[in-house]
Each structure stands twice: as C-alpha cells, then as structure tokens.
Amino acid sequence: MKRREFIKSAALGSMGGLLISQTFGAQAGGNMLTPREVEGPFYPITPQKDKDADLTQIEGKVGRAKGTIIDIFGQVFDQDGNAIEDVTIDLWQANSYGKYHHPHDNSEAPIDPHFQGWAILQSGKQGRFKFKTVMPGAYPLNSPQQRTPHIHIKISKYGYESLLTQLYFPDQPLNDKDGLFKRKSVQEQKMMTAKKTSKSNEYRYDIFLQKAF
Ligand SMILES: [Fe+2]
User: Which SUPFAM superfamilies match (predicted)?
Assistant: First the structure.
C-alpha cells in the first residue's frame, strides 16, 4: 500500500471506529444513553389493578407500606437531549424487607400487604414523571444472590429503542459488592444511580433513550 493510501485508510478506520462507538457505545449526541441491565426473575405475573404512581398505598386498602418512603422524579430524553412525552415506564421492585410480590420469590422475608410493588406510568409534559415508593430492601442475606437496593424499569415508546434497566441509589454500602452493579463502568454506574436532591428522601433520575430511526 502506498503511503498516501495507508494514511487515508487509517483515517477512515478511525472514523469508522468513532461512528461505531457513537452508535453502540455510551456516548451519543453529547448525552450518554441509560445503560441496559438484565430483567431479573421477578417481573410481576400476578395481575393487579392498582399500578399507579403511589406504590405506598393500595387502592381500597387502609394502611401504608412499611419502610422509608421516597419520592423519585425525572425526565425522559432522547440522545440529543429532547424531552420525550408519553413514554411507558413499567417498574417493579422488592418491598422494604427485600421481598418481591412474586410466586417464585421464596426468600423468607415477609410480604408487605400494603406495598404495591409494581407501577406503570407515562411520561407527561417535557417527558416528566414521578412516583412515590419505599426504599427497596436488599435481598435477604440468605438469598443466593444478594443484591443492593434497586428498582427494575422497562421503558418503551414507538420510535425509540426499548430499554430494560435498573435504578440504583447513591451511598448504599452494598453497591460495591453487587455483582451486576460492579460490572458497569464508573460512568455507567453514574447514569444508573438516582441523585439525591436537597429534600429529604427525594431523588432525581433521568432516562436517556436511543431513537430507533
Ligand atoms: Fe431485583
């Protein structure tokens, strides 16, 4: 190969690499996309009527979920930072004892009859969403796979790559020991971790989706 051709092909090669890293890597349009995570075994399979944004109360029941009540809000954006409305946000989590309302969760942690455990929300104006829940418990110590507190989320809207992820919380001592969390890069961990606001028990969590076409 002549020197000039070699330089040209090397330049094209590195450009190709750049394009690939923009498409499949973390960086797109200046914003990092929310990283993906596995679904886990406990996506709800028992039908339930109440899937609203307050997971601390079940419609028609008197009483409130046990644990620390927390508020989470945020916005959904595309990779260019445009807010996306009408995005479906389907989320589920363990109760404050670390137990899922799922027939396959056979840990000895108690069920909380007042905890809703599952919500399906839509992002509204400017892609905003919010929900009230309890701080999920770590899976019990006797569970074979101990997990740090997390919330599972499935996000979908026509025209965007659907996203399956998990939300984490800052300053959780188990984060460093969590098998799934540890596998992520520092930057990915940052994207997946809600940020504490100045209000007590309130967190901000923004979601970045990839346009499908
Ligand atoms: Fe989980």
Answer: Aromatic compound dioxygenase
83-139 pLDDT, tens digit per residue, is 999 999 999 999 999 999 999 998 889 999 999 999 999 999 999 999 999 999 987
How wide is the angle at C-alpha 79 spanned by C-alphas 120 and 86, nearest 5°?
30
Q: How far is the CA of 11 from the centre of ligand 1 (A)?
A: 45
Tell me which amino acid residue 72 is: I
Res 180 pLDDT > 60: yes
Nearest CA to 25 out of 84, 79, 69, 82 is that of 79
Interior angle at CA 192, CA 187 and CA 197, nearest 5: 105
Please tell me the distance between residue 81's alpha carbon and the centre of ligand 1 in angstroms. Answer: 29
- Spacing of C-alpha 201 from chain mean position: 18
- 31 near 208, Cβ under 8 Å? yes
- Pair 52, 131: CB distance under 8 Å: no
Locate 73 and state its tokens: 């809000």
How many whole angstroms from 191 Cα to the centroid of ligand 1? 18
Span from the CA of 165 to the centroid of ligand 1 (angstroms): 10
pLDDT exceeds 50 at position 19 = no
Q: Tokens 């300053």 — which residue?
A: 171
Q: State the DSSP code for 34.
A: P
Instruction: Give bridge partners of residue 74 from the DSSP assignment.
Output: 129
Residue 194's CB is within 10 A of a number of other CB atoms, namely 19
d(CA 8, CA 2): 10
